[in-house]
Batch of 2 targets.
Target 1
Amino acid sequence: MAANNNNMPAAMDKEQIFGMAEMEMQYRVELFNKLTHTCFAKCVENKYKDSELNMGETSCIDRCVAKYWQVTNLVGQLLGSGRPPM
C-alpha cells in the first residue's frame, strides 16, 4: 500500500478548492456590482455637470457604502454564515 502524503490534497480536494475559490470570486464581484449600482443610483445626480464627484456626492457614497457593508454583514451573521449574503 502506497503512503498517502497528508500535505498534498487529493485531486478531488483540489477541484473542490478551486471551485470554492471561483464561487467566492463570483460572489465578491456580484456584491461589488450591487453595492456600486445601489450607491451610484442613490448618490450621483443624473445631470452630469462636472467630470468629478462633488463633496456631497462623495460624502453620500462614503456613507452609503459603509451602511451597505454594515447591513450586509449583519444579515450574514443573522443567517449564521461567516460571510454576507448575496
Target 2
Amino acid sequence: MPYKRPGSPYWWVFITPPNGGNPIRRSTRTVDKREAEALEGKWRAQLFRQSAWGEEPERLFEEVASEFILASMKKRSISDIKQRIGKLYDFFAGKDMKTLRGQDVRAFISWRQKQGVSDSTVNRELATLQAAINYAIVQMEWQLPNPVKGRMLEEPEGRVRWLTKAEAARLIQCASQLRYGDRLADFIQLALHTGCRMNEMLKLEWSRVDMSRRLMWLDGADTKSKRRRGVPLNDVAMAAIMSRASFRATYCPHSPWVFCNKHGERLVAIREGFKSACKEAGISDFRIHDLRHTAASWMVSEGVPLADVKEVLGHSTITMTEKYAHLAPHRAREAVEKLQSHSKHIESPVRRIEDLIGRKRREKAL
C-alpha cells in the first residue's frame, strides 16, 4: 500500500519483485492516494511481466539521465550538462523513455519556446537528451527509441562581432587608464594577437612560455579541443608578455602565473574591468570572447588562408573557421579572375553585345 515519507508531499510505494530481487522504493509523484494505488498496481504488473516473460522493464527519464551524468563526470562541460538535464527533468520526469515519441520532443520544444528561450538553447538541451539516450542504447544496451534525431531547430548564423584596428586601439587605451589597467591592457593585446580564449590565457604558466622561440604552449587540459598547441608570438604579443614578466619580477618573482596579482595569485576574473573599458571606449555589444573573433577576422581580412587561421585558433575542424570566410572576398575575386584566364580563346559575351550595339548605331547614322 502507498505510504507517506517525512518531508515529501507525495505517496510512495514499496514493492518486492516476484523474482526476489532488491526491493523497490519509489515516489508516485502524486498527492492523490487513489492514483498512487493505481500506479502501484501498474508497476507490480510490469515487474511480473518482466519476471515471467522477460519483458524489457520501463526506463524512466531519471534513470537515463543519472546514468549519463555519472558517465560525464570527468567532462569539463559537466556543469552545463547538469543544467540542461535539469531543464529536461522539469518536463520529462516520470516519462518511460521506451514510449518517447516525436510528439513528446515537439511538445518540449514548444514548452521551452513559450518560456522565451532561444532556439540555440533548445538545441543544446535536445542534444543533451539525444546524447543521454544514445549512451543508454550503446553502453547500457537498453532498447530505447531516439526521436530527437532530425528535430533540431534551425539556428541563425553564429555571432561574429569584431573590432576595427582603431576601435581596438581605443579599447586598449581606455583599459590602461583603469585600476590595474596595465594587466588588462596586456590581456587584450595578447588576445588580439594570438586569438587565445580567456581561460587559455588566465591559466597560462611561465613554464609554458618560450621567449627565445617566441612561442607559448597551451596545455590540453586548458584548451577546448583538449589538444596541446603552440601559439606563435608576434611583436605586439611579445611586448605584452614582457610587460607581465616585468610585473612578476617586481612584485612576485616566484609566481607561476603569467596573469597574476601582486601576491602572485592567478587572476580568475577579468570581466568587470573589461566591461568598464568597453564602456569608456564607447564600444557596445562586445564580449571578451569577441577578442578572439577579432583576431580571426584580422587574419582573414589580411589574406591568411583559413587552414592557417584554423591552426592558430586551435579549431578541431575547418568548418568552425569557415564562419570568417565572408571577410575574405578577395579569395572569391581571385577565383573568378582565374576562370577568365582559361577562357581567353572564347569571345566575351559582353564584347559581342557591345559590338552589336555599335553596329546598330552606325547603321542609324547612315
